[in-house]
Design brief:
Blueprint lengths: L1 H9 L6 H20 L1 E3 L3 H11 L31 H4 L4 E7 L3 E2 L2 E7 L4 E5 L7 E5 L2 E21 L5 E20 L5
Pfam families: IL17 (PF06083)
Main location: secreted
InterPro entries: Cystine-knot_cytokine, IL-17_fam
Length: 188
């Protein structure tokens, strides 16, 4: 009818992109307020733990996996029986080391450290035991994984009792998780 046509033509049309912008804005508001919230110095660690529990991290080696082995290519170890651990059986072996940063949560994590610049090759001999060598025809290359940390940053405001306050800002750091063997990079 004429009344329904006039009502339709009078009602304003909202462009289809506006609901998307509104939804996008509603999603960002909690993110901005969450990372800009300031915590008292004695509460920042608890807040970081709570936030990290909600952000699933990929598996990390346990701190017990950290090796006291020297940072040198263990060619001689390959002449004996292999170990069960991957980092000691790899043709590009690595060890785990602790990395610390007091302004990050977690403040300590484990990272791989490549032990060889080349790759370990086991060359068979017809008569006698195999010969183990480090070949520089190949390179040991770190395998990196991006992990999220929460960085503690000083807020411009102070707490009610005059103590310092901190905000937790998500930062993404490349962490070496292992090493692999690759052909030498000949690109300029």
């Amino acid at each position: 009818t004429m009344a329904s046509i006039s009502k339709r033509s009078i009602s304003p049309r909202v462009p289809s992109s506006h609901p998307q912008i509104l939804i996008f804005g509603l999603v960002l508001v909690p993110v901005w307020t969450y990372s800009s919230r300031c915590y008292d110095e004695d509460k920042v660690s608890e807040a970081a733990d709570k936030r990290l529990r909600t952000h699933r991290q990929h598996g990390s080696p346990s701190p017990a996996a950290v090796s006291d082995s020297p940072a040198e290519c263990p060619v001689k170890l390959y002449e004996r029986l292999s170990s069960k651990s991957l980092e000691e059986r790899s043709l590009s072996p690595w060890r785990y080391v602790h990395v610390s940063n007091k302004d990050y949560f977690p403040s300590t994590y484990v990272q791989a450290d490549c032990l060889c610049s080349g790759c370990i090759l086991v060359q068979d001999r017809n008569q006698g035991s195999p010969v183990v060598v480090e070949s520089h025809d190949y390179n040991s290359v770190p395998i990196e994984q991006t992990r999220m940390f929460l960085k503690r940053e000083l807020c411009s405001s102070v707490g009610e009792d005059g103590r310092k306050q901190y905000r937790l800002v998500p930062v993404y750091v490349k962490v070496v998780v292992g090493c692999t063997c690759a052909r030498v990079n000949t690109a300029p």
